[in-house]
Amino acid sequence: MMNSSYAVPIDFQKGTWVEIQAKAKKEKKKIFIDAFATWCGPCKKMDANTFSNNEVGEFFNKHFVCYKLDMESPEGRKFGMQYPVGSYPTFLFFDEKINKIAEFKGYRDAVNFLAIAKDIVFPEQSAIYILNKDYQSGKRDKKFLYKFLMAKNDANQPADPKIIGEYFQGIPADSLISSEPFIMFYLFHDSLESAYTNYFIKNYQSLLAIYGNYAAGKVDNLINNNIQIAAKNKDRTHLDKIKKFALQFVEKERAEEFNLQIENIYLQLTSKPK
Fold it and tell me: Which domains does the chain have, with CATH numbers?
């Protein structure tokens, strides 16, 4: 159990982002940035419960130059142009050469936050490092691939499409009735026309009864992720497929309104300046 008595909090450094980079290079340390907003409740909770923890403070002060950055300040807005932050709190980590090596979002308790930092400082001891070695050595059973993909998801690391494909290889579509395949489908599968998505559509009510908000959330994920894909490629044919997919989950009287919402999101994304 972590002891916060006589706490040594994280020592956040003052200065500009340029000055923080210079300090990190001089001290040969990694950088940790707490990107926050003054109105953010979870940010205040991090200050009260996590950054003030003794073990967290000692570890971060030893291994990182720590920087607290109000993203709505002039310095924060300038930083955000190079490293966009979409929600608060966001935690960014940079190596000694100022390459961004990790990003996490949302409130973390002291135990979880310290574990994240240790994986960054000692990657060869991290679960993902060990799992990756096992993968490179040829391990491919479904339980292992599930564990590997979940570890990457928990660490906010992008999952390799090759590993996702290896997991789903040989898994029948009706396996979505079981929790592990459904979780993999929920997290990593975005195709609108696969056997898995077709099964999901045809058996939606049954899956909704089993998985509740996760099944409903998967509909939203499929729509939103595919709008992003369509907008990136400026592909209206794909946009039409999204609309057709979405209409299977919307009441007839709301169909026109829903299609218009999808169209507007697509137009907003494709009109964004590069």
Answer: 12-122 (3.40.30.10), 127-270 (no CATH)
